[in-house]
Amino acid sequence: MESRGLVAWNLRKFRLAKRLSQEKLALEAGIARTYVSRLERGVENPTVVMLDRLAKALSVKSVDFLAPKVTGGSCRRRYLRAVSRHPGAGEPIDTEA
Fold first, then answer.
1. What is the largest CA-CA distance in the chain?
2. CB 89 within 8 A of CB 82
């Protein structure tokens, strides 16, 4: 995958992991929401300065935007989604109680 695609994929992944809307991320990074949208679609090619601003807003390192795309199976996605929505869902059940 080309660099622009990796940036797009990882930007969206980090934003969703922080549960931020495009608008909220744009406000925190001091950019337009439409620019965030274009970055996530791979239409725009961000500068290093822009990656630094986005990284700061997302509490990640700029280099993290170029990390290889990692996908899990659909079962793993469903598990992670369930755990993120229901705190404690991934913890073992205490059968001794």
1. 56
2. yes
For residue 44, what is the DSSP state?
A: S
SS3 assignment for 65-83: HHCCCCCCCHHHHHHHHHH
Q: Mean pLDDT in each 10-residue stretch from start to end of the chain (97 residues)?
A: 88 96 97 97 95 97 89 60 60 52
Selection from 4, 6, 74 nearest residue 46 by Cα = 4
The two three-digit tokens of residue 2, written as one number: 């080309």
Tokens encoding 3: 């660099």
- Kindly state the helix (H) or strand (E) to which residue 33 belongs, with its residue range: helix 33-40
Where exactly are the structural domains of the chain? Answer: 3-85
Domain 3-85 superfamily per CATH:
lambda repressor-like DNA-binding domains (1.10.260.40)
Instruction: Measure the CA–CA gap between 28 and 42, rounded to whole angstroms.
Output: 20
